[in-house]
């Protein structure tokens, strides 16, 4: 891991692993990587309330993970160049979350 990406890794861990809405934020990032989308498209795709999606988009954009073009309902979101350049860091964190969620689900089912 490059020294330059360490603070970026910490930022991603804080926004995705260290906060309640982290899984939703990760799902938003994955969806936008597939193709740029607006908040309404994301809400429909992910089955999440529009206001919740807007909140997560604001957090991600404020922290430099997303950029946007356009205004109001037509505003489209894109991954920032820094996130694009360090996407493998995101994938490592996302894969680790997936493993944790599967373990928790197994524990819950076996109870």
What this model shows, in words?
With 111 residues, the protein is mainly α. It has one domain (18-110): Winged helix-like DNA-binding domain superfamily/Winged helix DNA-binding domain (Arc Repressor Mutant, subunit A, Orthogonal Bundle), CATH 1.10.10. Helices cover 68% and strands 7% of the residues. The protein is built from 6 helices and 2 strands. The chain has helices spanning 6-17, 22-34, 39-46, 50-62, 81-85, 87-110; strands spanning 66-69, 76-79. The protein has a two-stranded antiparallel ribbon. A hairpin with a 6-residue loop joins β1 and β2 (76-79). α1 packs parallel to α6 and α3 packs across α4. The radius of gyration is 15 Å and the shape is globular. It starts with 5 loop residues before the first helix and ends with a helix. 19% of the residues are buried.
Taking Cα atoms only, what radius of gyration do you get, to the nearest Å?
Answer: 15 Å
**Low-pLDDT segments, ≥5 res:** none
Biggest beta sheet attributes:
2 strands, antiparallel
The helix count comes to 6
Mean pLDDT: 89
Indicate the overall shape: globular
* Secondary structure: number of strands: 2
Summarize the helix and strand pattern as letters: HHHHEEHH
The proportion of strand residues reads 5-15%
Q: Based on the structure given, which CATH architecture is correct? A: Orthogonal Bundle
CATH topology annotation: Arc Repressor Mutant, subunit A
Helix percent reads 55-70%
Find the structural class using helix and strand composition: mainly alpha
Query: Strand arrangement, largest sheet?
Result: 1-2
Report, as a whole number of angstroms, the end-to-end distance. 39 Å
């Amino acid at each position: 891991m490059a020294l330059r990406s360490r603070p970026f890794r910490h930022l991603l861990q804080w926004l995705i692993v260290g906060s309640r809405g982290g899984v939703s934020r990760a799902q938003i990032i994955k969806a936008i990587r597939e193709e740029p989308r607006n908040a309404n498209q994301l809400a429909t795709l992910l089955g999440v309330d529009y206001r919740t999606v807007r909140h997560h988009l604001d957090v991600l954009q404020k922290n430099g993970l997303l950029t946007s073009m356009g205004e109001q309902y037509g505003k489209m979101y894109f991954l920032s160049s820094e996130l694009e350049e360090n996407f493998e860091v995101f994938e490592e964190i996302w894969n680790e979350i997936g493993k944790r969620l599967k373990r928790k689900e197994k524990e819950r089912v076996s109870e």
